[in-house]
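The protein record minuted underneath.
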Amino acid sequence: MANDAELAALRSALEEQPTDLDRAWQYWRGLGNWQGRDIRSGADVVRAFRAAAVAGPGGAAAFAAAYSELHARSGEGPRPCFVDRELQSALSRSLAGLADQDRQRVEWVLGCVTSGRSVARVHQAVLVGSAVLGSWLGMQAVHEAGHVLGARLTGGRVERVVLHPLTISRTDLAENPRPLAVVWAGPVVGVAAPLLLWAVAAAGQVPGAFLLRFFAGFCLLTNGLYIGVGSLDRVGDAGDMLRHGSEPWQLWLFGAAAAPAGLWLWNRQGPHFGLGPVKGRVSGRAAYAALGACLALLGLGLAVGGE
């Protein structure tokens, strides 16, 4: 039974000669009997045997044997996050120099890692696709909800809201006594509501809050560009704002504030979507939560109507 001091000494000895398999096995066994408990994990397989596995077939066999032992004890198998490209290549090269059982174990490790990376890429594609499409549909829904709220608060009467996924959303009013307030309510609510939703989720440390941050950034960017750039051609809401008394500089100011803020919210969010050093690894739970939200928004758009 190893105590803290003994385990630290074993780890220090291994760090001095990381390719020494005797020291690697001693450290591995020490972890398996730390104060009478087995505390080993996949990270410990890598810590104990990675250097030896990269160095040659003997180390690769030991790496696979340790992972096989861990899997038999706890059910934890090899994961892509612990087997980087260099280690994977070394394991593949070792196959030609290994005997039957050792070869089978290394092939098992490689199979788990390859399968895991394929699944990770599927999760990444689901997450990115759902986040982008869902944000587009959600942005339109919140924007039109702003127009509806503005109409209700100013005595207007809504005739139709168009949210069909294959059309550009709009809100038609049968009566509109305060058109300027109603038209501004769309983009104002369209950026304020997503920001508030993300702020509450972030403050509460809700898992997957990064999706709401992405959505808030998307709404800021698209509404900012829609109003700011739209003022140049007087199209859509921007045209209505100008016709009902807004000055062009007011639209430019809104766009200049909202669009950069949206880009700022997106800053450094790439790893959540599998970009950069994480190499495609994302939260599967977040991916399918985003897909569920996207499908719900598609259903809402079909239910609310089109032309």
Q: What stands out?
A: The longest helix spans residues 100-153. The mean pLDDT is 90. The longest strand covers residues 157-162.
